[in-house]
Amino acid sequence: MSTPTAATEVTETSLKSAAHDYWSKVKAGDIGALPAVLGLLVLCIVFGSMSSVFLTPGNFANLLTQAASVIVIAMGLIFVLLLGEIDLSAGYASGVCGAVLVILITDHGQPWYIALAASIAVGMAMGFGLGTLVARLGIPSFVVTLAAFLGFQGILLILAGEGGTIRVEDETVLAIQNSNLSPALSWAFYIAASVFYVLLGLSRINARRKAGLKAELFKLWLIKTISLVGVSGLAVWALNLERSNNRELVSLKGIPYVVPVILFLLVIGTFVLGRTAFGRHIYAVGGNAEAARRAGINVKNIRIAAFVICSALSAIAGLLFASRQNSISPTTGGSSTLLYAVGAAVIGGTSLFGGKGKMRDAILGGLVVAVIDNGMGLLGYAAGIKFIVTGAVLLVSAGVDAVSRRGSAV
User: Fold this and answer.
1) In the chain, what are the domains?
2) What is the pLDDT along the chain (410 residues), one digit of tens a residue?
3) Cα dihedral value 227, 273, 91, 297, nearest 10
4) Integer Cα distance of 374 and 352 in angstroms
5) Among the four 11, 235, 281, 368, which has the fewest Cβ within 10 Å?
6) What are the φ and ψ backbone dihedral angles of 386, each rounded to 5 degrees?
7) pLDDT in tens, 334-353
8) How far is CA 269 from CA 75, 190, 251, 284, 338, in A?
């Protein structure tokens, strides 16, 4: 008779304990992605109330495609930032790799997948060079990548040639940022992704329990999972609505092709950082490089590998740039691209000091940056105002990170 009551009391206590533990982490400075999530909600409410266009399905789809390239570059930067390093050349690296991709397709008749593999190989070679200079010669990453920023910009100018723009006509490349899954395939993708996410979460909880480790409270996991799946379902429903202004000429429905691409990279990156020895070594080196070295981790190789991954993901971003712009120009990956990508990672919750961050930070932060840029554009604000606001948000995020680290060190 007393067992059910005791079990209920344990469950209630556990829920209260989970909430208390989370609040204790927040007060101690471990706030994770909370500012990005709250900021995204506030921005959507503000811009939605001020603009009749902001919350429309068409603008929502545009936000996703607008943020895609910056998100992918930010994903690569997270590997470098976790080590407490920086890569200032990631933006122009995407432009160079995108130019290689387009030249191979347009001028040499190579299929898109061969051209993409070659551009990624070029990106990895560039990253290997940067990582070697940082890890083997000990040159600060700021100096190395600043030099590469200028060098890659020059290479892109040379590749673009006199015309200044390299156009791409490949239908597959263009479809990634400009076409959508059908509504039926969109729902099928949503269901498959939701099932995968639920099974993965259950598997993680069961594995930790069998290993005798502390697992996330099941009811808490269930609440978070239902919330995420519900919000995702609402997003799919919105994207499946007609977005075309002239549906007789063209119909626009469904999830943009770039969304599954981003989610695939998210799953792979999350697995690498969270489930592999390499990922654990990344966090260890970022937390304390000397302690990691004494523990037997090859710190130099970890640093080189992080730069290789960063540049490889920049190459994929080059594909997205080529798809969205239908071309590669000398400005591809330049201007504010790098600043937005670094801002996306930091705003999402990745620490500039190393040792703290997740792949999801790139998506959350990238959406925050895209919402600011998109929302202020719809309201008619000048580019200068948008830069000021985005810079202020980045400064606040970096400040919160610095304060939280100081609080956790006390």
Assistant:
1) 53-179+280-397 (1.10.3470), 181-255 (no CATH)
2) 444 444 444 444 466 776 766 666 666 656 667 778 888 899 999 999 998 889 899 999 999 999 999 999 999 999 999 999 999 999 999 999 999 999 999 989 899 999 999 999 999 999 999 999 999 999 999 999 999 999 999 999 999 876 678 889 899 999 999 999 999 999 999 999 999 999 999 998 888 888 887 777 788 888 889 999 999 999 999 999 998 888 778 888 999 999 999 999 999 999 999 999 999 999 999 999 999 999 999 999 999 999 999 999 999 999 999 999 999 988 888 878 888 899 899 888 898 888 889 999 999 999 999 999 899 988 888 878 888 888 887 787 777 767 666 655 55
3) 160
4) 26
5) 11
6) -65, -40
7) 878 888 899 899 888 898 88
8) 8, 20, 34, 17, 20
Token pair 């302690």 in the structure block, residue:
291
- The token duo for 64 is 């996703």
Q: Other C-beta atoms within 10 Å of 315: how many?
A: 28
81, 352 contact by CB (below 8 A): yes
Beta bridge partners of 167: 327
The encoded tokens of residue 138 equal 């000990």
CB 390 within 8 A of CB 16: no
Please state the pTM of the whole predicted model.
Answer: 0.90
